[in-house]
Design goal:
This protein is mainly alpha-helical. It has five helices and two strands. Strands 1-2 form a two-stranded antiparallel ribbon. The longest helix is centred in the middle third of the chain and has 35 residues. The N and C termini lie close together (12 Å).
């Protein structure tokens, strides 16, 4: 697998799409790689969710009388986290394997593009 850099936002979005994905048309070895990939992406998605919750709580604790200011600070903290990059081993599918994944699911074109950027070996 090829080492790549991706934002935590992209990793989190792809994790959300893939955690509900069907793999009915995929080959067995592709299915195994997809399961391994989800195991790799899950800690990043959990970290982002936990950090977002903490940022919101902290901002509300610091500015209990100014909800607008608290939300601005929380949003900035979350954006900074989402824009951070991590190194990943996500390019696990050939174009044919990705085609089988797409045919197994009912995604929008935007979702397909996002997933393809993370998964497909170029």
């Amino acid at each position: 697998m090829e080492r790549e850099r991706a934002t935590k936002k992209r990793i989190t979005d792809v994790f959300r799409f893939l955690s509900n994905a069907r793999m009915s048309r995929m080959l067995d070895d592709e299915k195994v790689r997809m399961i391994q990939l989800l195991r790799q992406l899950k800690p990043v998605a959990i970290e982002v969710q936990d950090a977002a919750n903490d940022a919101i709580k902290t901002a509300h604790d610091e500015y209990p009388d100014n909800q607008e200011k608290a939300m601005q600070i929380a949003e900035q903290a979350v954006q900074d986290l989402l824009n951070a990059e991590v190194e990943t081993d996500t390019h696990i599918l050939t174009a044919e394997g990705f085609k089988r994944l797409v045919l197994s699911n009912d995604w929008t074109l935007g979702q397909i593009d996002e997933i393809e950027q993370v998964l497909v070996v170029v």
